[in-house]
Amino acid sequence: MNTEELWQSYLYEVNKVSNLTELQTVKVKFLGKKGEVTLALKSLKDLPPDIRPEVGQKINAVKKLIEEDLEKKEQELAQKALAKKLEQEAIDVTLPGFPLPLGKLHPLTVVQHRVVEIFTSMGFAVATGPEIEKDYYNFEALNLPKEHPARDMQDSFYITEEVLLRTHTSPVQVRVMEKFAPKLPIRIISPGKVYRRDDDATHSPMFAQCEGLAVDRNIRFSDLKGVLLTFIKELFGPKTKMRLRPSYFPFTEPSAEVDISCVMCGGVGCKVCKGSGWLEILGSGMVHPRVLEMAGYDSSQVTGFAFGMGLERIAMLLYGIDDLRLFYDNDLRFLQLF
């Protein structure tokens, strides 16, 4: 095949090309290791020496033309491919976007926010403290010395003999009193996580509490009753009734359990309240004089009240839930109900 035939053969093949893949096939056919141009150059050795240089120049000239044409053709096809891709993938920026699912607050977080909102509206400040606590603040400063039988009421997670995961948020109250004594007044709530060795339908190894404390001169039990009644009616509705029952807590004296009229039956009696018409929601009482003294206050001049509630218990009553463990199962079907 002479150079003119070689060039015409190339033009015939390249004119049929419609994409980059076909172009690469043509390139290999003419310029590859076994391509026609390559074979033509190799066949020069079989020609007479006197015409070999002239034929070689013509073949190289055709080779250059093919290379230049291939490069030009490649650019054209690449531009066409890009234009086609852009046309196919064109985005209409005027179309509405895909809505993303919005997250929600966990029901316990919602309840905690509501409880905090109610108490802060009554002048209480929010105080926090460490969840890994010293035995002194968790027990001794709350009138629970070592070997006190009431410690058995709170089966605890000890890290060392003197360090444990706090079993209630009462240590925050002690720390606040120590920090500010003998200044007055003190009005705080302390929401947070606590830990005990419990795990069943109504107990969890980790749960949330919110405790409250007020310390000042001339604080009376009636002040405690008024604060709790206001809280209950704000949270559960104005028709909710409250009942106080004598109880025992080492860190308060006198102490009382606080019941509310059943939120399910309105106090008539149902299976939730076991026919009594009442539901227990929290414990309370006047701060024990020994607790005040250990924190740095003169119990002959200063009095105070304290209360504490489990936020899971409050949430279960508000939402009609009978198994506390649902709050911690991370089941989206349950969480999406709120």
Automatic annotation (TrEMBL):
Question: Gene3D superfamilies from the entry?
Answer: Bira Bifunctional Protein, Domain 2 (3.30.930.10)
Which InterPro entries does the record associate with it? Answer: aa-tRNA-synth_II, aa-tRNA-synth_II/BPL/LPL, Phe-tRNA-synth_IIc_asu, Phe-tRNA_ligase_II_N, Phe_tRNA_ligase_alpha1_bac, Phenylalanyl-tRNA_Synthase, tRNA-bd_arm
Q: Which PANTHER family match?
A: PHENYLALANINE--TRNA LIGASE, MITOCHONDRIAL, PHENYLALANYL-TRNA SYNTHETASE
Q: Name one GO biological process term.
A: phenylalanyl-tRNA aminoacylation
What sections of the sequence does the record tag as coiled-coil? 63-90
Q: Which UniProt key words apply to this protein?
A: Aminoacyl-tRNA synthetase, ATP-binding, Coiled coil, Cytoplasm, Ligase, Magnesium, Metal-binding, Nucleotide-binding, Protein biosynthesis
The reaction(s) catalysed by this protein are: tRNA(Phe) + L-phenylalanine + ATP = L-phenylalanyl-tRNA(Phe) + AMP + diphosphate + H(+)
Q: Which SUPFAM superfamilies match?
A: Class II aaRS and biotin synthetases, tRNA-binding arm
A single Pfam family it belongs to is Phe_tRNA-synt_N
The positions annotated for binding Mg(2+) are 253
Q: Which gene produces this protein?
A: pheS
Q: Name one GO molecular function term.
A: magnesium ion binding
**Which part of the chain is the Aminoacyl-transfer RNA synthetases class-II family profile domain?**
111-319
Its cofactor is: Mg(2+)
Name where it mostly resides.
Answer: cytoplasm
Instruction: From the Swiss-Prot or TrEMBL record, give the protein name.
Output: Phenylalanine--tRNA ligase alpha subunit
Under Enzyme Commission nomenclature, its number is: 6.1.1.20
Compartments it resides in: Cytoplasm
